[in-house]
Amino acid sequence: MAFTLGFLGPSGTYTEEACILYDPTAELRPYSTITAVGEAVASGDLVEGVVPIENSLEGSVTFTLDLLISQPNLFIKGEVVVPIVHYLMAKPGTVASEVKVIYSHPQALAQCRQYLEKTYPQAEQMASLSTVLAVSDSFASPVPAAAIAPRRASELNEVDVLDIGIQDVASNVTRFAVLSLADHAPTGHDKTSMAFTFEVDTPGSLYRALREFGIRDINLYKIESRPTKQYLGQYIFLMDCAGHREESPMKDALAALSQPTSMLRVLGSYPRWYPES
Length: 277
What we know:
Blueprint: E1 4-8, H1 14-22, E2 27-31, H2 34-43, E3 48-55, E4 59-60, H3 62-70, E5 75-83, E6 87-90, E7 101-104, H4 106-111, H5 113-119, E8 124-127, H6 133-140, E9 145-149, H7 151-156, E10 160-164, E11 173-180, E12 190-197, H8 205-214, E13 220-227, E14 235-242, H9 250-257, E15 263-271
Parallel strand pairs: 1-2, 1-3, 7-8, 7-9
Antiparallel strand pairs: 3-4, 3-11, 5-11, 6-9, 6-10, 12-14, 12-15, 13-14
Helix pairs in contact: 8-9
Domain ACT: 194-271
GO molecular function, one term: prephenate dehydratase activity
Pfam families: PDT
């Protein structure tokens, strides 16, 4: 029986591409929202689910961060990094110079802004619910239209590809998190994600917390904050660090960090994704 892997759909998205990279043998099941993927994993309907967590241009995906913070039984078991290569595609027979409307998700339109202004200054830009639905939106357009979508969408739809790699920043990538009810065993090249907050806001609280990692030479990949959603001015800090929670020095740092914090939640320890993964 094939392993079922849930993902933020619909089929043809970059999230589906991340699933294929993560496990090409898995049976894929699309869900309409990030929350729906998380709830399916938390309830046991899915063993694992894949959702976007960070883009190199747009930053963190707050829906995913809030899901991990609010669901204490969800963990990050793995990560997949996918290069974002935007394709311009259209209904077969469409003449590129006659395109009047270009559909895509607002983030994709923003990531191709310079290209669109230079190559299609006359075309109206229209927002779609996803880069994949942009293809069907362009097909339904009463005037010549195109869509910005992933390569995968061109494989699932009969289209003419008008251009490839139209994103303004060639190094644009998105990191996807593999959600599960448990994180990953140590591999020797791991990273740990965590969230913590302070009950009382005092001078030096964050410094003292970060010092526990600095004195142990633990590399900090990322730190950011999210509102606690309880009181204005109260924040939850989220960090990604080198190392596994079950191994020193990360294990020692977490033990020390638990003292000055009012909440500490390890969101998961998992293998760090490399291009050759």
